[in-house]
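Ops channel
N.P.: pipeline sanity check, posting one input/output pair.
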């Protein structure tokens, strides 16, 4: 019986040479060289932003409602809002402009009174309102040195009127408004900064932004023929219903106020009463000067002293 032992063969390992490719292992912490496709695009650093609107927050002085009087043509206007609203009537109806100037120190009163006489606003107001706003702001910030310095201290920051309701002068609730008041302040800031450089004023600066239009810009952009074609029916209706006798602004407003409260002139009368509420009825009984004592008999004052003081003011 033969043995099942297989013959052994010897292999010379020194004669074998296995070539293995060299692999350069990059550690996980090694920095990766960015390729042109992976490099982020260059982004310019955004400008700073200065928001102004609320009375109890900084930069309320930038609004037209701030209590800073303005001198114009030798007359004192309680605020720049009084002057701006007076610009709507000062050429054709100076009596309305004077009434707005003296209607009170509250800027909201000037705003409300100007809206009462909306029918007598100069017809080209939509084209000159920004220019008139710049004029009112220029007088305000040049007549008050502290406001001038406050405006210059903002540097190159973007000035934004953070009004949630105004989409023309402010940015509105969704920040899609035109912010024309903020832009006017930025242009004024540049003027004050370069007031000693005459070459700066040889070229126009700060053109109007026509990329975002509001509804009030539409009439100025329409051609006369297209505008006449769209509103011809409306004009015909108004012409037929209008009176042939022209009315003065004061008489027309007086006629329309017959249905309004005789005291506040803001709300309609309650049923057949003369006033809109009990508060107005009680306030109407008080002296028109001191507002603390009731009127004497049928006179508008409580005493001769209040009558004399009211005439002086």
């Amino acid at each position: 019986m033969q043995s099942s032992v297989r013959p052994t063969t010897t292999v010379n390992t020194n004669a074998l040479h296995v070539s293995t490719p060299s692999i350069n292992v990059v550690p996980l912490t090694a920095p990766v060289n960015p390729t042109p496709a992976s490099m982020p695009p260059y982004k310019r650093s955004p400008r700073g932003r200065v928001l102004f609107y609320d009375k109890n927050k900084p930069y309320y002085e930038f609004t037209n409602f701030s209590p800073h009087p303005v001198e114009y043509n030798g007359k004192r206007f309680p605020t720049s809002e009084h002057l701006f609203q007076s610009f709507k009537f000062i050429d054709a109806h100076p009596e309305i402009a004077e009434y707005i100037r003296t209607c009170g120190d509250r800027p909201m009163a000037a705003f409300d009174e100007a809206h009462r006489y909306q029918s007598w606003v100069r017809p080209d107001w939509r084209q000159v309102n920004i220019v008139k706003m710049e004029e009112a702001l220029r007088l305000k910030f040049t007549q008050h040195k502290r406001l001038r310095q406050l405006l210059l201290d903002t540097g190159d920051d973007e000035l934004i009127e953070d009004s949630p309701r105004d989409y023309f002068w402010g940015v509105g609730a969704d920040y899609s408004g035109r912010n024309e008041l903020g832009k006017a302040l930025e242009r004024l800031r540049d003027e004050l900064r370069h007031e000693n450089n005459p070459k700066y004023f040889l070229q126009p600066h700060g053109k109007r932004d026509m990329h975002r239009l509001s509804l009030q810009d539409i009439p100025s952009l329409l051609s006369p023929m297209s505008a006449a074609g769209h509103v011809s029916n409306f004009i015909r209706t108004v012409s037929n219903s209008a009176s042939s006798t022209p009315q003065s602004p004061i008489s027309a407003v007086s006629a329309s106020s017959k249905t309004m409260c005789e005291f506040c002139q803001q709300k309609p009368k309650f049923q057949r009463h003369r006033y809109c509420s009990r508060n107005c009825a009680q306030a109407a009984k008080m002296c028109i000067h001191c507002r603390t004592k009731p009127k004497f008999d049928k006179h508008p004052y409580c005493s001769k002293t209040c009558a004399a003081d009211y005439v002086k003011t």
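N.P.: looks fine end to end. The CA atoms of residues 233 and 239 lie 10 Å apart.
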